[in-house]
Design goal:
The complex is a heterodimer.
Chain A lengths: L1 H15 L5 H5 L3 E5 L3 H13 L4 E6 L4 E2 L4 H5 L9 E2 L2 H5 L3 E4 L2 E5 L4 E4 L4 E3 L2 E4 L3 E3 L23 H12 L5 E6 L9 H16 L4 E6 L7 H11 L4 E4 L7 E5 L4 E4 L3 E2 L3 E4 L3 E3 L1 H5 L24 E3 L13 H19 L9 E10 L2 E11 L5 E10 L6 H23 L1
Parallel strand pairs in A: 1-2, 1-9, 2-5, 9-19, 11-12, 11-17, 12-13
Antiparallel strand pairs in A: 3-4, 6-7, 7-8, 10-18, 14-15, 15-16, 20-21, 21-22
Chain B lengths: L2 H8 L3 H9 L5 H22 L17 H13 L7 H4 L5 H12 L3
Helix pairs in contact in B: 2-3, 2-6, 4-6
The chains are: A alpha/beta, B mainly alpha.
The structure holds flavin-adenine dinucleotide.
Chain lengths: 421, 110
Amino acid sequence: MSARISRRAVLAVAAALPLARPALAQGRARVVIIGGGFGGASAARWLRRVDPAIDVTLVERNPRFVTCPFSNLMLGGLRTMQSISFGYDQVRAAGVTVAIDTAIAIDPTARNVRLAGGSTLPYDRLILSPGVQLNYAGIAGYSEEAAEIMPHAWQAGPQTELLRRQLEAMPDGGLVVIAAPDNPYRCPPGPYERASMIAWYLKQAKPRSKVMILDAKDSFSKQPLFMEAWKTLYPGMVEWVSKSNSGRVTRVDAKSGKVTTDFEDLSPAVANIIPPQRAGQIAIALGLDQGKGFCPIDPVSFESPAQRNIHLVGDAIIAGGMPKSGFSANSQAKACAHAVADMLAGRAPAPATLINTCYSTAAPDYGFSIGGVYRPNDQGIFAEIPGAAGTSPLGAPRETRAAEAAYAESWYSNITADMFG
Amino acid sequence: MTRQFRARTGWPCAAGFALVLCLPTHAGAQSLQASTQAATFAESCMSCHGLNGKGQGAIPQLAGKTQESLQGAMTEFASGARPGTIMRIIAKGYTPEQAAALGAYFAQVR
Ligand SMILES: Cc1cc2nc3c(=O)[nH]c(=O)nc-3n(C[C@H](O)[C@H](O)[C@H](O)COP(=O)(O)OP(=O)(O)OC[C@H]3O[C@@H](n4cnc5c(N)ncnc54)[C@H](O)[C@@H]3O)c2cc1C
């Protein structure tokens, strides 16, 4: 019975909508997805489940994806690289065509994507989840080459391994500097979780060492919880210097190893420089950011107001209250998969309720979280549902912190299984 | 092929969930919208609780619990009556009707 209602519903909605249905007229609808990370891999697998009749191709530069989530735990010695790296076999097994290649150009009029390898992929609708690119020019003296000496480790992989090797090589009593960027950037609590994980490693291996966070802002995500954790776990080891206290890094010199703020020159043993960021280049090249650095979207359809038939999810978008997290990207990707399937079938997409939860691990048995529930609002962005946003409480018992560290592990297993099988 | 037929093949539980939310509505278009929306509610839960609510590790599985216990947990997390961590925040984002529908969805996953 429900199937009959549903068939009528489809016809009713389709008749009421002026949406184009080129895909249905020509056979199987084709969706191309660029970026096989949190947004893109999720979108690919979920689109196949929402509508197995859609032909889905995922374009990803690298044959294996290293997750930024838990890369800080790798720096702390709690995880191996192997345990945070994933291949695309189960994405293929879901019926997705995976092209390990780089998308170099999009033709929005002809509706196709050109790949570095020479092929051209036609699409009915395109989903972009290219993540962020680093804006090296945001810090004088910093560059892709300088990052080989002063790693950002903000795109997980070789950069993460380089930073870990530097931590292993530094002397006891040395200084680790983390330069944290101004908002908006990927993973607002990330630099502070990183400081905690580096302190965890140093506390066992090099207990006379220090971690100093030089910040381009005056407050940060879960700040009271991080401050409490540092006081409890790493007294005297972690120092945070706010922008108002001249914390902003204005210049680096990779040759001499110097890190400069408005106030002083430092010569740390290890310099982790996290520069400002913007949407991945493939989105910027097409002007999808409309000059803003990140891309506006319609929060119901995830379609770009700059180009029809192109949808965006993940770090590359302006998502209102939703932070740039892997969880947000995964949640957006699922809603986007429904929207794209609906639009290909000539139906209007419905607004979705999205979730974000970010765990931070300060020690193996010490975790805490921030989370929220979001809906599109009348300003066309995602807004928190009133009351449904917040963090773990301050002063919670150690059992609660231990429970949240275990939840973080569980979350990681479950979300990576959602994306990569 | 209708959406719900596809949902039934791709996602064994989606059809039942859609039905729950469809009952109070009369217009076909509205129930379709409700079902699409309903599916995304449950899918967001899966980022922590695992595909179909059958995750690994410390985060509780939702699959196969009774609707009453799942709905009750959401209500108590939202009111603060039940101790918890992130669910005390997340539960506040759902209306009682949505919590009931989520309970019904995960209750019938085998
Ligand atoms: C240290 C750190 C810790 C973090 N911890 C957490 C956490 O605990 N929880 C959490 O939820 N989030 C966390 N994050 C944030 C999370 O990593 C990002 O929000 C998430 O990766 C965003 O997903 P995305 O799909 O937008 O980008 P990505 O996951 O980066 O995926 C983008 C993909 O697109 C590919 N790509 C880009 N351009 C092209 C092209 N032209 N052709 C082909 N492929 C292309 C890239 O190779 C990449 O694989 C953390 C981030 C950092 C840096």
